[in-house]
Protein: Beta-glucosidase
Organism: Tolumonas auensis
Amino acid sequence: MSVFPKDFLWGAATASYQVEGAHDADGKGLSNWDVYSHLPGTTYMGTNGDVAADHYHRFKEDVALMAELGMKSYRFSVSWPRLFPKGRGEVNEAGVKFYSDLIDELLKYGIEPMLTMYHWDLPQALQDEIGGWESREIIDAFEGYARLLYERYGDRVKLWATFNETIVFTGLGYLTGMHPPGVKDPKRAIQACHHVFIAHARAVETFRKMGVQGQIGFVNVLQPNDPITNSAEDVKACELAEACFTHWFYDPVLKGEYPAELLAMAQTALGVPVFAPGDAELMKNNICDFIGVNYYKREMIAANYDVDGFEMNTSGQKGSGKELGWKGLFKLVRNPNGRYTDWDWEIYPEGLTDAIMRINKRYGNVPIYITENGLGAKDPIVNGEVLDQPRIDYLREHIQATGEAIKLGADVRGYYPWSFIDLLSWLNGYQKQYGFVYIDQENNLARKKKLSFGWYQKVISSNGEEL
């Protein structure tokens, strides 16, 4: 008997900017990434999502491949500026129709849609007019956007997620300056992050007031942090890293409040986040129905007396990344005994079991979907075949780790590898591949099934027994 429940949702995931293309088609407005990716030096070799995998024009072909794969569910995101070109106000009906048609096509094949409202493509108009996530005005704009989604798709979509990986788009957008809007200011980062949590809570409140039949959650990175040694200094640094990277992002949506000690530290040191009247109550009263977990790696943590900065490996040259650290707080260090990808991400499947159980311990047995998990690699092509055996090995180990968490009592309801199809990796271009389906950039974006496609097909058909 399979350890996975009978109704377990075997799926795969993508995101609008990374897969759709059609950046200016049919009335779509500009997103922050449409603008940022065209600025010199922002992305690997100037790559952008103008065309991406052209899923906008080829979604029926792609959904047919999903059906052939046997997918039970598909996690996708909606492009906010495709529906509201200016972020609010006038609705672009052609954009609304695209997602309506996509949802209908999925349901035609019995594939459950999981809709993510925000996967980083902010309408550029909202960045220009109000300052994006730094403005409280964006909360009303996001609530209006969510309301439109519920009105148009609430009769067919049962699984909803408000935001994807707030730690990334606020951290890289406002702390390291590597994502739009390219700011390096911890005070601004924390306040922008607070507005995300309030926008989420408003969207959850509206979802329930409107009586949408379904469940609504939030998608976070899950990166368990472990101390590099058992020294008191490294253990203390690791506890702080876990609080910053995990508790700060999970507590507001699963407990309805920030971790008290960390909140006090931030407000004492920087005076943020600033709460408006009603913020605390809104968060407390709008806890998620489920949590989406994006797991790729764990991080080893050490006390930090020297490193102050961050340089990410975006080339796929193993060892080219630099240490990330906040001097006097903690730093991320390499595990000398670890297995690493070409992008310097540790391959540590046991960390997925561990991280899920940490969620259980802190928040109770909350429903969990593994909303992303995958291997970014440069897949070899031999005699015309895409032989991505390392991806198969990676996913096998992590599916087993998910099964271990289920055996230990965790309520895991679905598994969505990143990604269904090769797509644009934000800062890494098209060289970093994740998909079950290869995109031939030299041959009219032709779709080609990889070795992993047939393997995952058997995993799904056997409900996780045949790995």
Observations:
- The chain has a mean pLDDT of 96.
- The CA atoms of residues 68 and 305 lie 53 Å apart.
- The first strand starts at residue 9 and ends at 13.
- The domain at 9-227+243-296+349-461 is CATH 3.20.20.80 (TIM Barrel).
